[in-house]
Every structure is written in structure tokens, then in C-alpha cells.
Write a structure and sequence with these properties.
The chain has 338 residues and is an alpha/beta fold. Helix content is 35%, strand content 14%.
Length: 338
């Protein structure tokens, strides 16, 4: 896109999101960077106004709820040059046809990684302090105990944390963990020992990571080869008293096997993502005292979504200046990212 040319911009996302994502300041920056053809986003491409907007759009600004961008869509958007996503993964809406046509694609996954990494760090530190288990115990006894004797190994000094997946989030978690006197292990088949060392971790095979870690934090993408990466056999490798943290995808874990391990009381878990996304009412994960279950809130929510919107607006400003995208997504990336 030639520098100094104001691109025609259309938003495509769930309308309920726009107020949280784009405040007046970000909308003003969008207006300076390009021509926002309609202040209201397209939620569907069969809306009466869609044809006129798609015929002119050069930059499509997307977020959660964007319809699929397939060949039929592209036929109606002949001038489209870039898709800028104000959220994480683009796999749900950007089809292969977009890359085949040479359309530039950008994602705010780097911005979304920040709150997930912060949540994961907090979970790791609290897990080693046995906060989740002791909260329940304190409610029972309502008095003094020698808590370190009740929970052998309590504390963060010289503990071992295993990171599964050197994704955007996994790398950020490793960086945050540098501040603590913890041993850091990394499993990622695409990372060699030298890169793992630069990330501040020791590369290790998954089975060994599970055996050696006090806390295991999952940050791998949901791919065919990662389905039930932690199956019954691997979950059984976790040492007694270990904690599993999942802020990635429920897809990675065999939940029936996980329920059995947790029901035994042998391990603990901090679970933000499940499979299915909403567990059935009868799931034991809602009730087990050694489970800290949250409703997929580790990623950008509330005020944090504006960080993603700001990144997207900055990308559009670069396009308007004729500069390259900083957070570009390539078609070949989709087979290995979340």
C-alpha cells in the first residue's frame, strides 16, 4: 500500500465488542490513518450495506465474531489488500484463499499473550505456595497450623517449572520467570537446545519434563498432533503434589484422565480452558478442592482488549505510511500456531 494514501477501512466483528475495543482515542487514530467507511462493524456479510462496503474496502479490521473470509467473500472485496485482526488467532476466519491472493494479514496475538502470561505466572507462583489447596484447608480448620508441614515442599525457592510450548505466551512466561529462583524446563519440538538456553530454559523431552516439574504450564497450540498431548499415561508421570496449569486449550488434555488424577488428590490443577469449552454441570472439576477452575479469562478481557485494538490500529497506521506490518501472519504459520 503506497505511503501517504489513506486506505478505505471496514470493521468486521461482533458489534457488542466495538465499544470495549475502540475508545474515542483509537477511533480518532483510525480516522486519521484511513477512511473508516462505517462506524458500525459488519457482523454478517449478508447485511444490506455489506455489498457497498466490501466493494470499496482495502483494509478489513477484524476481531472476535468476524465471518469466514473465503473465496466468496473475496469475490465481493476486489480492492482488499490487508486484514488486520484486533485479537489473537486468525485461524477461525482467515481462509487459505486470502493468502493465495497475496492479502497481508496481521494479528494481535502478541498483545493477547501479555495477560495470558501474567495469569500463568501468577498461577505458577501461587501453586508453589500451595495457595489453592491451603485456602480450602484453612476454611476447614479456621485456626493455626504449621502449614509447611501440612504441605511438604511449599514455596517457590529452587522449584522446577516446566513450560510446554515456546509460543508467544510460552516465551513471555519464560521471560517473566527469569526474576525468580526457579529451574525452568522447556518442551517444544521446534526449539533446539541453544534457543531454549537463550529463552532461559533447559530443553527436555515431554515425559521427562512431566516427571521433573513441580508445576507444568501448557502453552502449545491446538493442532492435530497436540490433541490429548497429555493423555492418561503422561498425566500419571506428574509427581505427587505437582500442579498442572492450562491457559492454552482444553484440547491438549484428556479431561477424563485428568478428572481421575485430580479426584485421587494426587495432583492439583489450575484450569482456565477445558474441553468442551463449557463443562457439563456434572463435571467434578467444578467441585474438587484441588482444582482452581476459571471460565477462560486468562486472555484479553475488559480493559486488556484495548491493548489488542491499539496494536491493530498501529498496524493500520504503518500500512497507511507504506511500511511493513510488524505482526504479520504468513499462510505457512497456520499449521503450527494456535
Amino acid at each position: 500500500m503506497a505511503g501517504g494514501v489513506r486506505p478505505a477501512i471496514v470493521m468486521a466483528m461482533a458489534p457488542v465488542l466495538t465499544a470495549d475495543l475502540f475508545d474515542d482515542g483509537l477511533r480518532a487514530r483510525l480516522a486519521r490513518a484511513g477512511d473508516l467507511l462505517d462506524r458500525e462493524p459488519l457482523a454478517r456479510f449478508d447485511e444490506p450495506r455489506a455489498d457497498a462496503l466490501l466493494a470499496r474496502v482495502e483494509v478489513l479490521l477484524t476481531s472476535w465474531g468476524c465471518p469466514l473470509l473465503d473465496e466468496a467473500f473475496l469475490a465481493r472485496a476486489p480492492k482488499l489488500r490487508a486484514i488486520v485482526h484486533a485479537a489473537g488467532t486468525v485461524k477461525q476466519h482467515v481462509g487459505a484463499a486470502c493468502f493465495a491472493r497475496g492479502i497481508a494479514v496481521s494479528s494481535a496475538a502478541a498483545a493477547n499473550a501479555i495477560p495470558v502470561a501474567e495469569f500463568s505466572l501468577a498461577a505458577i507462583l501461587l501453586a508453589n505456595k500451595r495457595v489453592f489447596r491451603l485456602r480450602e484447608r484453612y476454611r476447614e480448620v479456621k485456626g493455626f497450623r504449621f502449614w509447611a508441614k501440612e504441605c511438604p515442599g511449599l514455596g517457590n525457592y529452587e522449584k522446577t517449572v516446566g513450560i510446554v510450548g515456546a509460543s508467544h505466551i510460552g516465551r513471555r512466561v519464560l521471560d517473566l520467570l527469569r526474576s525468580f529462583e526457579l529451574e525452568r524446563l522447556l518442551y517444544d519440538p521446534l526449539v533446539d537446545e541453544a534457543e531454549a538456553s537463550r529463552l532461559g530454559a533447559r530443553k527436555i523431552e515431554l515425559d521427562d519434563l512431566l516427571r521433573e516439574s513441580d508445576v507444568v504450564s501448557l502453552h502449545a497450540p491446538a493442532l492435530a498432533e497436540t490433541h490429548h498431548l497429555l493423555d492418561a499415561r503422561r498425566l500419571a508421570l506428574l509427581r505427587d503434589g505437582a500442579t498442572l496449569v492450562n491457559t492454552a486449550r482444553g484440547w491438549l488434555v484428556d479431561h477424563e484422565a485428568l478428572e481421575r488424577e485430580l479426584a485421587s488428590g494426587r495432583i492439583d490443577a489450575v484450569i482456565d480452558t477445558t474441553d468442551p469449552e463449557i463443562l457439563p454441570p456434572g463435571s467434578r472439576l467444578y467441585e474438587l478442592p484441588n482444582v482452581f477452575l476459571t471460565p477462560h479469562i486468562a486472555g484479553s478481557m475488559g480493559t486488556e482488549t484495548r491493548r489488542m485494538a491499539r496494536l491493530a490500529v498501529e498496524e493500520i497506521e504503518r500500512l497507511a505510511r507504506g511500511e511493513a506490518l510488524v505482526h504479520a501472519v504468513r499462510g505457512e504459520d497456520l499449521s503450527r500456531v494456535a
